[in-house]
Design brief:
Ribosomal Protein S8, Chain: A, domain 1, alpha+beta, Structural Genomics Hypothetical 15.5 Kd Protein In mrcA-pckA Intergenic Region, Chain A, globular, Alpha-Beta Plaits
């Protein structure tokens, strides 16, 4: 039911943008809804743009518009810088997210939390709706065991690249089960069991089809194993297998 309401809301915003010519913004949406944004824009003959405050953001806002897309400064979001003393603590992403949601804030009011650096010191950047930014800045005082200070960021700090490593694999076909097995060093049977159990997502959406096609940019996550991204498809090996470069998230 909740998902139906979200889809209806997207449809209404796209229709309003097409009818009035006034840009309509969503709040932050789950990555799984980005395809629904595209479909709603197409049905209502509106244009759309997705933006989360920095390149490659996962949680984004959608803007439906008629002719002119909104510039980066026009979006109803605000970057917040979360700082702490690295001599005493190093809050992890889960600590920061838990602390923010512990304020009683609806998830749609917040985007990504990204680790970053500011003037040589570690920090994090939280993207939030403008109406919630001041409340978060005034209310968030700790994350995990770390005391934190939150300030409105006039400019986004240098966001750190995600932790992980690239691995080069070969598969017979770009199927979900084959890529999953190669990326996590699993047997094909183990990968298929995970998929059949509903424990695997492809591009943020649960997928139970072992033969689902995977392409460049595809994101795969398996519960208990982590996440993979298909960084590049590099052609065929001498044995006729498909060569892929995968980015495996995590330390």
């Amino acid at each position: 039911m909740e998902n139906d309401l979200e889809l209806k809301r997207l449809e209404e915003l796209a229709a309003r943008a097409a009818r009035t010519g006034v840009t309509q913004f969503t709040r932050f949406i789950d990555p799984a809804l980005t395809d629904a944004v595209r479909q709603a824009a197409g049905r209502q003959r509106a244009q759309y743009r997705l933006y989360g405050g920095y390149p490659d953001a996962e949680r984004v806002m959608a803007a439906f518009y008629d002719t002119d897309p909104p510039g980066d400064s026009e979006w109803p979001m605000q970057a917040l810088r979360i700082a702490w003393n690295p001599k005493f603590a190093h809050p992890a992403h889960r600590d920061l997210l838990g602390a923010v949601l512990g304020l009683g804030i609806d998830r749609e009011a917040t985007g990504d939390i990204a680790l970053a650096t500011w003037q040589g010191a570690p920090c994090a950047v939280l993207f939030a709706t403008r109406e919630m930014a001041s409340y978060i800045a005034a209310s968030l005082e700790s994350a995990g065991r770390a005391a934190v200070k939150v300030t409105v960021a006039d400019e986004v700090p240098d966001i750190a690249p995600p932790e992980g490593r690239e691995v080069r694999v070969t598969v017979q076909q770009p199927r979900l089960d084959a890529v999953l097995a190669a990326g996590y060093d699993l047997s094909r049977a183990q990968a298929q069991k995970l998929i059949a159990a509903g424990l695997v997502k492809l591009d943020h959406v649960p997928n139970t089809h072992t033969d689902a096609q995977v392409g460049e940019g595809s994101l795969i996550s398996a519960r208990g194993h982590g996440r993979l991204k298909v960084a590049a498809i590099q052609g065929q090996s001498r044995r006729g297998r498909l060569v892929m470069s995968l980015f495996r998230y995590g330390k």
